[in-house]
Structures are given as C-alpha cells and as structure tokens.
C-alpha cells in the first residue's frame, strides 16, 4: 500500500482529501503544521507528499527541501491558489479548484509510475 503525506492548514479540507485517498487504498498521514510535517518526514517514508495551498510559501518550500533531502524518491504534489512561487521542487502542480477525485487520479498516476520504475 502506497503511503501519502497530506499537508495543509485547513482541517476540513484535509479530512475530505484523506477520506478520498483512503477510499482509493492509500495509507494517509495528515500534518497540519510545519513541525508535524517535519516530524512525519523524519519518521516515515512516503511515496507521495501533497502540500496544500493553505501552507505558506516559506513552510511549503522548507517541507519540499526536507523531503527531497531525506527521501529523494518521494514525489511532491503542490496545490496552489494563485501563486506559483517556490514550486521548483514540485513533481506536479494542481490548482485549488482540483476535485478530490482528480487529486486521487494524480496520486494513482504518480504511484503507478514509481512502481514501474522500481520494477524496471
């Protein structure tokens, strides 16, 4: 089962996305602060990390750097509102208007590609 780190500062939105990802068969860890995300990254391996638009640019950049240093194979999806600053470490970008279903499809695509790379 692929593991997903879901980071955001809006609880209701996090919980909705968590339910959709779990229903699709993913193990999901939530983080609602920079400290919680950093602790999770240090303790666990994630196939995909989703950094929500509610995460301030500086925190998002710090999380992306920490992820890429600690776990280079983790793919990062950044969800943005209107700014595309500090997204150079993102493996994928999605708008805030992205539905939960589209987010699940994006994670499915990324995890599928990771699995194919591991088997090659």
Structure, described:
With 120 residues, the protein is of the alpha/beta class. The chain has a single domain (3-119), classed as Rossmann fold (3-Layer(aba) Sandwich). Helix content is 48%, strand content 20%. The chain contains four helices and five strands; from the N terminus they run βαβαβαββα. The longest helix is centred in the last third of the chain and has 20 residues, at 100-119. The model has no long low-confidence stretch (mean pLDDT 87).
How would you summarize this macromolecular structure in one to three sentences?
The protein is an alpha/beta fold.
Sequence-ordered SSE layout with sheet pairings:
Layout: E1 3-7, H1 11-23, E2 27-31, H2 34-43, E3 48-51, H3 57-70, E4 75-80, E5 92-95, H4 100-119
Parallel strand pairs: 1-2, 1-3, 3-4, 4-5
Q: Give the helices and strands as they follow along the chain.
A: EHEHEHEEH
CATH class: Alpha Beta
Termini gap:
19 Å
CATH architecture label: 3-Layer(aba) Sandwich
Ranges where pLDDT stays below 50 over 5 or more residues in a row are none
Give me the secondary-structure category: alpha/beta
Q: Estimate the helix proportion, in percent.
A: 40-55%
Salient structural properties:
120 residues; alpha/beta; Rossmann fold; five-stranded parallel β-sheet; 5 strands
């Amino acid at each position: 089962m692929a593991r997903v780190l879901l980071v955001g500062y809006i609880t209701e939105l996090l919980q909705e996305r968590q339910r959709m990802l779990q229903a699709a068969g993913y193990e999901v860890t939530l983080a609602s602060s920079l400290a919680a995300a950093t602790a999770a990254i240090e303790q666990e391996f994630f196939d995909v990390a989703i950094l929500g638009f509610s995460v301030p640019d500086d925190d998002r950049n710090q999380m992306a750097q920490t992820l890429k240093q600690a776990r280079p194979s983790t793919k990062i999806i950044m969800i943005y509102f209107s700014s595309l600053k500090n997204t150079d470490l993102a493996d994928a970008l999605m708008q805030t208007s992205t539905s939960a279903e589209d987010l699940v499809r994006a994670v499915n695509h990324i995890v599928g590609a990771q699995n194919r790379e591991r088997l090659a």
